[in-house]
Design brief:
Number of domains: 2
Order of helices and strands: HHHEEEEEEEHHHE
Radius of gyration: 50 Å
Number of helices: 6
Largest sheet: 5 strands, antiparallel
């Protein structure tokens, strides 16, 4: 005969659940515990979105507050600690002399010239040694008559006959004056050697040479123009009008030869 104990062992060995397994299967499922675990898993996923929302709200408030302070001029001005500074260490201007002038500026001419200067070396390619500059120079030249050069017999007045005779020096041209605001370097070509030389300072007198050449060109153009003739005509017209207003009826004005 088979014992009950042996039968139980056979049954358990055949895969029948034991008492502990039976008790677990018989217990109802704890749904509350499952809900807590699900809530714990879902809450971390919602928190980042909530944090981003508050961060965006704070940024909006900061921007609105900044715009409001700026609109009402209450926003503090912070100086840039790295801003560029210019220090003027020039000495005071010294007055060297004063000269009394008796010149009548009768005409002024405005000129413009393009200076095209090229410095290169023979048998050396321009890509190695070459410097060509196009400089646009604008300047003016004044034509004047110096009344301080009147001689003793240069002015003869006849009060009885209301006559006056004037002998004036010829008109002269003032030194050309270059307008810095209208003068500029239009184009420049440099070779490899010239570029390397500029890295070590180059020639500081290059710009001065361009200005001097421009002054010479403008001076030549002024002498070849009708500027002195225009100055003579304007001077004579001015003197005739002034002497006529003084009551002189016969006026003779001559200009001596240069």
């Amino acid at each position: 005969m088979t014992r009950p104990d042996d039968t139980r062992s056979d049954v358990r060995g055949s895969g029948w659940p034991d008492d502990s397994t039976t008790e677990m299967i018989g217990k109802p499922l704890d749904t509350g515990r499952f809900d807590d675990a699900a809530r714990v898993e879902l809450e971390p996923r919602r928190r980042p979105f909530r944090g981003l929302f508050w961060l965006a709200a704070i940024l909006v408030l900061v921007v609105v507050a900044g715009l409001g302070l700026k609109a009402t001029n209450l926003w503090p001005n912070f100086a840039n600690p790295f801003k560029e500074q210019t220090t003027d260490r020039s000495q005071s201007v010294l007055l060297k002399s004063i000269q009394d002038l008796s010149r009548f500026v009768a005409a002024s001419g405005n000129f413009e010239v393009v200076i095209d200067v090229q410095n290169n070396r023979q048998f050396i390619p321009d890509i190695i040694f070459n410097e060509r500059t196009l400089f646009v120079a604008a300047g003016s030249v004044d034509a004047y008559v110096d009344f301080g050069q009147l001689t003793a017999g240069g002015l003869v007045v006849d009060q009885a006959n209301r006559k006056v005779e004037l002998k004036l020096p010829p008109p002269q041209l003032e030194k050309p004056s270059i307008n810095n605001d209208r003068s500029y370097v239009f184009a420049q070509q440099r070779g490899l050697v010239n570029r390397i030389g500029d890295l070590f300072g180059g020639d500081p007198n290059k710009q001065q040479q361009l200005y001097q050449l421009a002054e010479a060109k403008i001076g030549e153009a002024a002498r070849a123009s009708e500027l002195t003739q225009r100055a003579q005509e304007n001077t004579e017209k001015m003197l005739r009008g002034m002497l006529t207003s003084l009551g002189y009826t016969t006026i003779t004005i001559t200009f001596t030869s240069p």
